[in-house]
Amino acid sequence: MLILGRRPGDYILIDGGIRIVVISSDRRGVRLGIEAPDHICIVRGEIATQIADENRRAQETTVGSEWLDGLTMGDQG
Fold first, then answer.
1. Long-range Cβ contact pairs of 8-16 (< 8 A, separation 24 or more)
2. What is the tens place of the pLDDT at every residue in 29-39?
3. Is the distance from CB of 11 to CB of 26 less than 8 angstroms?
């Protein structure tokens, strides 16, 4: 992990055209701006965790798949 001290207006460049800019900083936290090519997905950490949790729950739920199977079978008969 790279740990840096930066001030508002300073930025960090990451290979692939990603630029992280410090917008502001105070006792409450830091505001960052992130510029990246369109094909790069940027997601906050807590959102990525929620998505992973939902995907895990969806895989563990057999009721949902049984319900879906019933719908597709109903279309055939």
1. 16/40
2. 999 999 999 99
3. no
Threshold 0.70, pTM exceeds: no
Contact 38, 45 (CB under 8 A): no
Torsion of CA 42, 46, 50, 51, to 10 degrees: 10
Q: How many CB atoms lie within 10 A of CB 8?
A: 12
Residue 61 has pLDDT above 90, yes or no: no
For 21, half-sphere exposure in the C-beta direction (CA atoms, 13 angstrom radius) is 7
Q: In sequence order, what DSSP letters do the residues of 17-76 get, joined into one string?
A: TEEEEEEEEETTEEEEEEE--TTS----HHHHHHHHHHHHHHHH-HHHHHHHHHHHHHHH
- Tokens 């990525």 -> residue: 48
Q: What does DSSP assign to residue 13?
A: E
Q: Is 41 exposed, middle or buried (0-12, 13-18, 19+ CB in 10 A)?
A: exposed
